[in-house]
Design a protein that fits this description.
Elements: H1 10-22, E1 34-43, E2 58-67, H2 69-82, E3 88-92, H3 99-108, E4 112-117, H4 126-129, E5 135-138, H5 141-146, E6 152-155, E7 158-161
Helix pairs in contact: 2-3
Protein name: NYN domain-containing protein
GO molecular function, one term: RNA nuclease activity
Pfam family, one: NYN
Length: 167
C-alpha cells in the first residue's frame, strides 16, 4: 500500500476553488458529498500469517473514503429528468458508477444523453460507453484553456487571485 502524504495546502486550494465557483452562482449550483475517515485494521502487505493465531497479520490504518457524491449526482440527474428540467443529460466523468443512471435516463426515461470524458475518449470507461450515449467527446486542451477562471475574481469578501498553478 502506498503511504499518502498529506499536503496541508490541499484544503486551502479546495476552499479557493469553491470560492471561485461561487462567483458563478447564476450558472451553476453546487451539490456536495462528504468524506469519511475511519481507523481500520487491514492486512499487511505483503501478506503474512501470524504463526500463533494462523490469521492474517494486520495493521491499523486510516481509510479516507468519499461518500455520497456519486449517488448525489445520479439522484440529481434523475430528479431533473422527472421534473423535465432538461432535454439532454451530459455527464463529464469517467466514473463507471454513473452507467446505471445514464442507462436509466436514456432507455427508461427516453432522454438523449452524452458523455464528455476528462481525457481522450479512447481511454474512456467501457461501462459508460455501453449506455449508448447520443454523443461522446472529451475535454480538449483548448476547451480547458478557455474554461479557466479570470486571473482576478471578486466576491462579497473582496478580490482574490487565481493560483499561478492554474495557468
Amino acid at each position: 500500500m502506498a503511504r499518502i502524504q498529506f499536503d496541508p495546502q490541499t484544503p486551502v486550494r479546495q476552499q479557493m476553488y469553491l470560492r471561485a465557483l461561487r462567483t458563478r452562482r447564476e450558472q451553476i449550483s453546487l451539490h456536495f458529498g462528504s468524506f469519511r475517515n475511519d481507523k481500520r485494521d487491514m492486512p499487511v502487505h505483503p501478506v503474512e500469517l501470524d504463526p500463533a493465531t494462523g490469521k492474517w497479520r494486520t495493521t491499523a490504518v486510516k481509510k479516507l473514503e468519499e461518500k455520497g457524491s456519486d449517488v448525489n449526482l445520479a439522484s440529481r440527474m434523475v430528479a431533473d429528468a422527472f421534473l423535465r428540467k432538461a432535454d439532454i443529460f451530459v455527464l463529464l466523468s469517467n466514473d463507471s458508477d454513473q452507467a446505471g443512471p445514464l442507462r436509466m435516463l436514456k432507455h427508461e426515461l427516453g432522454f438523449s444523453t452524452g458523455i464528455i470524458f476528462p481525457m481522450e475518449s479512447s481511454r474512456g470507461s467501457k461501462e459508460l460507453m455501453q449506455t449508448s450515449p447520443d454523443f461522446v467527446s472529451h475535454v480538449t486542451p483548448e476547451a480547458l484553456a478557455s474554461s479557466q477562471f479570470p486571473r482576478v475574481l471578486k466576491d462579497e469578501t473582496g478580490r482574490f487571485h487565481r493560483p499561478a498553478a492554474w495557468d
